[in-house]
Amino acid sequence: MLCPRRCGADRSIQRGVCGADAQVRVAKIMLHQWEEPFISGTRGSGTVFFSGCNLGCVYCQNHEIRDGGIGDVYDVAALADAYLKLQQDGAHNINLVSAAPYVSDVAESLRLAKAQGLTIPVVYNSSGYECVEAIRSLDGLVDIYLPDYKYITPLLAQKFSNAPDYAEIASPAITEMHRQVGDLVLDETGIAKRGLVVRHLILPGCADDSRKVLDEIVRILPLTTHISLMSQYTPQVYTTEFPLNRKITQREYDRVISYALSLGLHNILLQTRDSAKSIFTPQFTEQI
Questions:
Q1: Alpha-carbon distance 184 to 108, whole Å?
Q2: Which of 115, 205, 219, 258 has its Cβ near the most Cβ atoms within 10 Å?
């Protein structure tokens, strides 16, 4: 019952819809250089990729770990040790990617790590499809929220992520994130130390829905909110169905940028279209 699916699985005997069982499984731990510049900085973001996901988007670049079967088992103490090791290695922050299936254990591991000397910011890197109650359980433990806001149109959310209720779930979750941490704040070197950044990946043929996403962001959040408009959509070998079988065009990207500006949003992060490459996707078959 940790996520909006509320599948009711007894994970001691079966996997949930997210693919997770009762144990925390981590697919990869790394210093990640390919997040937003104020997250990765010069030394990298100390990223923990959790295995499993409650969305299972058809275009997922991390599909190897989406089903929850890849990775090593970590208990709470081992997670805390991993965060502290990343801090020792120079990471600007601890970046928890797709932690929703394990949010209770993650909260406990953060409390333990902070008690043992974790001082760098904690980033919660999320699909946006989260229960408000789960986000509330992280209050005071997370410094930076980095959620997606993927769709407004239920038909697209159903077709691409099997979650027609995506928008009605994401809006209150992201509102709660902003309540906890406020707008993005950078330190004197330009590295994020606190706040909310909302990501939106523009999908080919879906610019109209992207405009609706921006409308909703303006409705629920202040115009000072930092928005990361991503052009990096990359077709995968299994995304052969139209319109996901191509990259977005420059015209599609420009339309969304222009609309964001027309709404009064001004803290907008942009990407060059050469970001749409598989080279930016971590390889999960390597040893952790």
A1: 25
A2: 205
